[in-house]
Structures are given as C-alpha cells and as structure tokens.
Amino acid sequence: MDAQENPVSDAATLTDLEQATRRIAALLGRVDDSRLDGPTPCPDYTVRELLGHLTGLAAAFRDAARKDLGASTAVSPDSALPVLDDDWREVLPRRLEEVAAAWRSPDAWTGMTRAGGVELPGEVAGAVALNELVVHGWDLARSTGQPYAAGEAELRSCEALLAPAEDGPGGSPEDGSDGDSLFGPPVPVPGDAPLLDRVIALSGRRPDWQPGS
Question: Which residues, including other chains, have CB under 8 Å from residue 160's CB and lie 6 or more apart?
C-alpha cells in the first residue's frame, strides 16, 4: 500500500502525543539494569534494544514533525539492531518530551515529511508516531512486569492504522510495505476482546505475552 493512500481518519485531529510519551517515561523508573537483557514481545529485541529503538524513533519522529529531514529520518528502523547509550536514562525522557512537543504544532500534521526513509504525509507520520509509542510502550510494560493502559482515542487511531485494508492485507506506512505487520501477521483474538488487546494483536503480538512464554 502506498503510504500516501493509507486512510487515517482521526490523525489530523489527534495532535497530542503527550499521554503516550508520559506513560513510557513513567515506566522507565522501574527498568533496572538487571532487566536490560530480558526478552520483549519484539522477537529480535531485548529490553536494551527496545529502549534504544524508542530513543531513536523519538528523535526520528520529532524531526519528521519539524520537517528537519536529515540523517535521523533517513534510516530504516530495521537496518540494524538499536544501540542503547549509557546516558539513556537522561536522554530518553528528554526525547519523549521533544517528540510530544513537536507534534503539538499544527504544521507537523500538514504537507509531506519523512520517517524511516519513507516519504509520507504529515498526518500519516503523526499517526505512525503515535502507534509506535503506544505499541512499544506496551512492549516495555509487558517486558518489565508493569501495568499498561492507553486512551480510547489513541487506540482507535492505532486500530485504523493497523487494520487490514478492505481490498487486501494492511501495511504500516513506517516501512512502506504491504501485508503483515513488521513483527508478523495479526494474531487472532475474540471480537469482544478489549480494544488494547485487539490493537496489540493487529501489531503481530500476542496480547497474553509474558517473559518466558
């Protein structure tokens, strides 16, 4: 699917990533060094690499919002495993504040921008940024044994982004691909499952995932 054609009906009005970034920041205090090499729902990531990915994506989507299209927006997220710098406890909270602030500007949601090396409309980039924060926030919470909840408006935006298109499989505009999500095909869940579980399943994860499962 062409990223420019992806329908995200709520994206232009959902201009606040503040709650998603604050939830992640609140999780960081309980991530001690002993957890960094533990598994996550992302098959190729330990907690350390998940945190490195969050640090990088916050910078990339901050710059995408600002239309500052340099090196941070040019690299595909799967080009290499993320590296977590020693100062991540100071850097990651600051990056989260910066990405939330950048997407509060109405200009961020207009025109074209770039993220992960893909050119896409601002409103789609904002929806992808929110989805990344919501889903990876869940990843971090589940990996470190912490509770996690997200607002309905956020989850509806993620659901619209991740749901398969009517004429074929859906794809994430983050990587410009058709078909299954970056982490595998959607996982079947009951139709009456909680909205968070449905979103997580659409992202290719098992909502009942636990470390060691």
Answer: 7, 8, 9, 10, 127
